[in-house]
Amino acid sequence: MAFGLLGVFFSIMSAGGAMSEDEITPGGSRIHRYEGHEYEFRAPEGEGRNLDEITDFLEGFLGENTGVFHETDSDKVHIDVLYFPPRPGQEWWTLVTSGMSDLPMTVPDGLEDPEGVELAELVLLLPEDWFVADEKGLVAADVVEDQQKFWPVEMLQWLARFPHEYGSWIWYGHSFPNGDPAEPYSSNTKLSNALILVPVHWRPEQINMKLKNGRDLTFLSVVFLYDDERDVKLQQGTDVLTDAFDRAGVNELLDISRPSVVRTNKVLDFLRGLTKK
Questions:
Q1: Which of 25, 63, 76, 228 lies in the 20 to 30 Å Cα band around 266?
Q2: What is the C-alpha separation between 180 and 177, in angstroms, rounded?
């Protein structure tokens, strides 16, 4: 499996936003296509501009940041992925990007507070046994060669660069297929889409931070989807899908073999129908 430049992504229409010629799905998502996008390399600007502030803020509630997955080749922005190892009460790895907020995103017209939603970083949680670390919490360097382990890191970096590569904006409710048609991210999973939400494992006051320059920075979570879950989002709306996620306990903590909430709900509806007969 390989993922790179996607030809399409799906976003939620913003209230008051200007209409475009992009296709609008029944669930209210606007489909943006980028087949004609011309790639142009640009050296990163302001590399690591907010890294120290982000790290200090996160260590206040996640514990020590024991390591960083550094990006070797950077374009437009340099995306590091900070990792925080499991600890009591936090039995998972926490991954957070740093570098996405080095530049503001291109926010669509019509939003009430565009400057308040220009800066973001992405959050993903991985199971406790996902990485092997030494006594200092450092992950072995050769993990980058294990596609089944490293694809979530690469996907975070790709998503964090996306708005700067395409002069676009990603926010709550935006979804991204892994290609068109979407393909699984790796041979160890059938997940093939990404949805941007907010971290449910964090308290509300931890989702936003104020930078020293006065700018607001928001932490958004990444939840990986199956095709049928993405279709529910497009046809019925993000709220319908997130309600199903809440019932099933699906969130930013990655489970590569979880059942689809669509299939699960169909089975439950069928069983309920049988009990009523």
A1: 25
A2: 7
